[in-house]
Design brief:
There is one protein chain. The chain is α/β, with parallel strands linked by helices. It has eight helices and seven strands; from the N terminus they run βααβαβαβαβββααα. A seven-stranded mixed sheet has the order 4-3-2-1-5-6-7.
Amino acid sequence: MNPFTQWRGIAAPMPKANVDTDAIIAVQHVYTLKKSGLGAYLFHRWRFAPDGSEIADFVLNRAPFRTASILVARSNFGCGSSREHAVWALADFGIRCIVAPSFASIFHENCIRNGILPVRLDEEIVDRLLNMLERNECKEVAVDLRASRITLPDGSMNAFALDEAQREILLQGLDSITAAERHKSDITAFQQRDRQVRPWIWRSNS
C-alpha cells in the first residue's frame, strides 16, 4: 500500500448526507476480489444514464472534477453495507482522501486499510468548503497527514484528528498483517499469559 503523507489535488463537492455503499458501487458490480477495474462503476447510477451516456450535471462528469482525487461530502458517508468494494472503487477512480463531518465506522476502517485518508471536519467547515468548491475558481485542497492539517482553497488551515494507530498505518503504508506483526512481542506476551490463565483452550503442542 502506498504511504499517505501529503496530498494536493482537485476536490469534488458532493453535498449529500448518508451516501451509502450501494450508491458508491451497486451490488451487481461486486463480482470480483480484484481491487482494480472497479473505478468504472463508481457512483454508476449517478454518473451514467441507462444507455451508458454520461449524466452531464453529475459532479464527477464535470470539469475539473472528473480528475478529482479528493471528495467532500456531508455526514455519515459510506453507510449501508460493509462491502469493501466501495473503497476499492473510490481508490481505483483515484480518490486519495474523503472529507466529511462523519463516516460509517466500517467504511472508515476500510478506508484506512486501503490507503484512503478519511478526514472528519466540523459541519460548518465542510459547508464552507463545499461552497468554495462550487463558487470559487480554485478547486484544490492540500492535506498534510504528518501535521494532521488540511488547507482549503482560500488558504485557511484546519486541524483534524485521527487515531494514532490508524495514522501510522497510512503514513507507513502498512497492510493489516504487517501492522499486526509490529506488535509481535505483545502478542507473544499475551499468549504466554493466556496459557497460564486459560490452559484448556490451548493445544498441548501449540
